[in-house]
Amino acid sequence: MLRTVVCVSGGGTNLQAIIDGIRQGSVSDVQIVRVVSNNKNAYALERAAQAGIDAVCVSPRDYADREQFNEALLREVDAAAPDLVVLAGFLVVIPPALIRKYENRIINIHPSLIPSFCGTGYYGLKVHEAVLARGVKVTGATVHFVDEGTDTGPIIMQKPVAVMEGDTPEVLQRRVMEEAEWIILPESLNLIAGGKVKVSAGRVSIAE
Ligand code: GRF
pTM higher than 0.90, yes or no? Predict the structure, then answer.
């Protein structure tokens, strides 16, 4: 069983996709043991409560400085003894100590085809605004391991999504979620739980 902590900041639709996948049996051998949010108002916390999943809020506002917040975040993640940490819309700079301790055991879902439209400043609707401004015809989503950079870790899965005439950032965001994020994140968990994901020299190979 892959003990999994999911870190959230907002609506939690990716968290919900994992919860639903476990319930429906399309995600096997994965147990969400804790949800961690930096935002006490995150609807994702309500989703966790409805699913009966332990949830904690670690808010930077409750700590004197970033170092004490980072220590609290690491403590709350460690307390759940996870095999894997999933960043599902977690709008927090991950402390290097957490990345080092969970090397190649933290994954992130990003709403574009990395290396396009990613890195500092590319999050949420900003990603889709940039996609539309550039006029690309295909976008999508990426699941990748988290390393010390921003959206720079080894790529696990990607899924393309067409950009349509007349798309607004909100419409495109929803299509990328429905047609890519909510599919490849649960599937990536399945592959990791099944021991099928290997990282070597910064590249991911997936066993048949
Ligand atoms: C998603 O678009 C995800 O790609 C990005 O943040 C958003 C989180 O949405 N990292 P939700 O909280 O899972 O609904």
Answer: yes
CB distance 177 to 124 below 8 Å: no
Strand, helix or coil at 90? coil
Integer Cα distance of 55 and 52 in angstroms: 9
Using left for φ > 0, alpha for ψ between -120 and 50, and beta otherwise, residue 19 falls in alpha
In sequence order, which residues have a C-beta less than 8 Å from that of residue 6 and are 6 or more positions away? 15, 18, 32, 34, 35, 36, 85, 86, 88
CB 2 within 8 A of CB 192: yes
What is the position in ligand 1's atom list of the atom closest to the CA of 110? Answer: 4
Identify the residue whose C-alpha is closest to ligand 1 atom 7. Answer: 89
Nearest CA to ligand 1 atom 12: 12
Side chain identity, residue 181: E
Per residue in 54-103, pLDDT (tens digit) is 999 999 999 999 999 999 999 999 999 999 999 999 999 999 999 999 99
Query: Is 128 in the active site?
Result: no
From start to end of the chain, where are the E strands? 2-8, 30-37, 55-57, 84-87, 106-110, 138-145, 155-162, 197-200, 203-206
